[in-house]
Amino acid sequence: MIERTLEQVQSLISPQLAGETQSSAQSRYNQIRIAGVSTDTRTIQSSNLFIPLVGEHFDGHDYASDAYNRGAAAVLWQIDHPSPPKGVPIILVLDTLLALQQLAKAYRQELPVRVIGITGSNGKTTTKDLVASVLSTTYHVHKTKGNLNNHIGLPLTLLQLDENTEFAVIEMGMSNRGEIALLSELAEPEAAIITMIGEAHLLQLGSRKEIARAKVEILEGLQVGGTLIYNGDEPIIEEVLLELHKAASFKRLRFGKSETNDVYPTQVKLDSEGTHFQVNKTEYPDFYIPLLGFHNVINALAAIEAAALFDVKPEQIQSGLAASQLTSMRIEKLKAPFGLTVLNDAYNASPASMKAALELTEQLSGYGRRFAVLGDMLELGSDEEQFHRDIGKLLSPGAFDTVFTFGRLAAFIAEEAAQAFPQGKVKAFQDKQELIQQLQALISKDDVVLIKGSRGMRLEQVANALLS
Length: 468
What we know:
UDP-N-acetylmuramoyl-L-alanine:D-glutamate ligase, Protein-Tyrosine Phosphatase, Chain A, 22 strands
């Protein structure tokens, strides 16, 4: 994490943003050392620099004194806020959010760290975890923790880097145009990965092409001579790349299922715990990932390309993939005490990820009955009803015994699926507890239950009920 004196912190913040250190005549303030930063008093650590952010319904400045009392060494203070707390070492700034971002960018530039940026509509968190795992076999690596992938989380991630970090694997999320460009310019990646272009954020952006343009913004901060690693099965990425003036300044590597890519799978086989696969390059051994599904093989291909780019040996890539530890709620395979298998994929959902989860569950063998619990897919814009109906049409009684849906939009999934299933085998709910009760009454120890929906539906509550 960042460790600097207040004087050094102030020097890292742009002169356009920084004021003077409060009580600057007292040189002891300037020499106070901070270790790490925090924007939340609930998780503040001793010697942190507290950065109070201002939101629509909160103002971190109200908690500055509390942060200091909890161990913060100093506080940034936005100059338009009156009455900064007395006796607290403070650096005045024009905007605390911009100061956080500037501090992170400047600190990143002081480090010898090499950065890999990852974005995409689906699979970016899993790909981040896989890339970090394979690089960790050879280098000292830091990766984005949890979901710190936005205009606040990414700067916090950069400020978590140690002086001896060799690689940072940075996830970049977005809702609108311009957001990925900002994150990329802060992180300045040497390599950028685009996992795929899906339908998430259609509500904000209106079309898949606009989504692709938003994802390709990751090139804005890509270092000259850097490498773009992208899903070659997405022709829309190629179309958008043609619009760029800097297209000649970076290298390209493509991954995907098609044989036109630089790397693609030649054999894929699922077992009860993960997926075995081979690729088209003879120098690579057989690979295994502790993840289920063909779509995760595609994510692993991006990690293979990134690792090879930075001289990780094939055997190390193999061991890194096999040892991967994934962020929770992304198709976690969990066992209830009485034997039931739960596939918990409740973190997020889009049409592409929903299809992948259903295909994965259909491919599983060795279980009793298969159940699907599907929730609303959010932020899909004016065609949201049709996207849900399309999912319903994919469901078949040969693959699933019973389908449960939760939410207003997921009811359209149920409406379409009911046309193919026997009566009573498709159940739509608006009450989550009622859904849980009816599902619990049906399941047995040999069954498998897929749980999939957008984060806002909080379907992990269903998983927790089944597992307890």
